TrEMBL record:
<dbReference type="InterPro" id="IPR001680">
    <property type="entry name" value="WD40_rpt"/>
</dbReference>
<feature type="repeat" description="WD">
    <location>
        <begin position="192"/>
        <end position="233"/>
    </location>
</feature>
<feature type="region of interest" description="Disordered">
    <location>
        <begin position="1"/>
        <end position="37"/>
    </location>
</feature>
<keyword id="KW-0539">Nucleus</keyword>
<dbReference type="GO" id="GO:0005634">
    <property type="term" value="C:nucleus"/>
</dbReference>
<keyword id="KW-0853">WD repeat</keyword>
<keyword id="KW-0963">Cytoplasm</keyword>
<protein>
    <recommendedName>
        <fullName>WD repeat-containing protein 37</fullName>
    </recommendedName>
</protein>
<feature type="repeat" description="WD">
    <location>
        <begin position="109"/>
        <end position="140"/>
    </location>
</feature>
<dbReference type="InterPro" id="IPR036322">
    <property type="entry name" value="WD40_repeat_dom_sf"/>
</dbReference>
<feature type="compositionally biased region" description="Basic and acidic residues">
    <location>
        <begin position="7"/>
        <end position="19"/>
    </location>
</feature>
<dbReference type="GO" id="GO:0005737">
    <property type="term" value="C:cytoplasm"/>
</dbReference>
<dbReference type="Pfam" id="PF00400">
    <property type="entry name" value="WD40"/>
</dbReference>
<dbReference type="InterPro" id="IPR015943">
    <property type="entry name" value="WD40/YVTN_repeat-like_dom_sf"/>
</dbReference>
């Protein structure tokens, strides 16, 4: 009898014991599923936000490769609208003007004695500005009558006949993997001096009447193109200046 009673009690207690964990586990499972749903929603929303910041994929391909420099190219510039020319500045101490369609050098400037670090075309005149490791910036003149019909080379004109070594009809100075040099310019229109270190970059101010330079001597300088004189020396940086850029319309 005792065993039966105890057995009955034991049997009656077992369902209660089993019921409690089941109820708790249901609550736990319910809470977990709710958390999972919330986390999933959050993840979906976050993914949408992140995907909205993604930039569209851009497909690029090489159209033309320009070869002719003997060392690294530091800078590239495009001439003003309507003039199909590209300028390059190189560590081989030269700057080159290229005819875009032909992919050939039409003028090589060799007036610098150090690496040519930057190149910029004048906004309206046939002038080019270069900065160099020889602590100077040069302004040089090169006008082109571009005629690509029949593969003719552009006619080059400069400030004086002595500035050019070889004309259009002269033998090319060098032929490097298809790059033909039609003429070589040695003398600048203006040499801008005053820096005590490498001139890393130079740019035309709006209107093209002034030039700004940046140097490793930790200063920037403003020059007058006509007088070739330094107007202002701008100091304040604690380290070398590596670049300068002027606003296209405001001083």
């Amino acid at each position: 009898m005792d065993c039966n009673v105890l057995g009955d009690k034991h049997d009656s207690l077992d369902p209660d014991k089993d019921a409690m964990p089941v109820t708790k586990s249901k609550h736990k499972l319910g809470g977990s599923s709710q958390k999972l749903k919330t986390a999933h929603k959050l993840k979906a929303q976050t993914s949408k936000i992140v995907s909205s910041f993604k930039t569209p994929s851009v497909c690029c391909c090489v159209v033309k490769e320009l070869r002719g420099h003997r060392d690294g190219v530091w800078d590239v510039a495009v001439a003003r609208a309507g003039v199909p020319l590209i300028g390059t500045a190189s560590a081989d101490r030269t700057a080159c003007i290229w005819l875009v369609e032909a992919g050939k050098i039409v003028l090589r400037y060799v007036g610098h004695t150090g690496s040519v670090n930057s190149i910029r075309f004048h906004p309206s005149r046939d002038l080019v500005l270069t900065a160099s490791g020889d602590q100077t910036a040069h302004i040089w003149h090169a006008a082109f009558n571009v005629d690509v019909v029949g593969g003719q080379h552009p006619k080059t004109t400069c400030s004086s006949d002595e500035d050019i070594d070889g004309g259009v009809d002269a033998e090319p100075e060098a032929e490097l993997e298809g790059a033909v040099v039609s003429s070589t310019l040695r003398t600048p229109v203006a040499e801008l001096v005053g820096h005590g270190g490498v001139v890393a970059h130079a740019d035309w101010m709006p209107g093209g009447e002034q030039v700004v330079t940046a140097s490793w001597d930790r200063t920037a300088a403003l020059y007058d193109v006509e007088t070739k004189e330094q107007i202002h020396s701008l100091s304040g940086h604690d380290q070398e200046l590596t670049h300068t850029c002027a606003h296209h319309s405001q001083r």
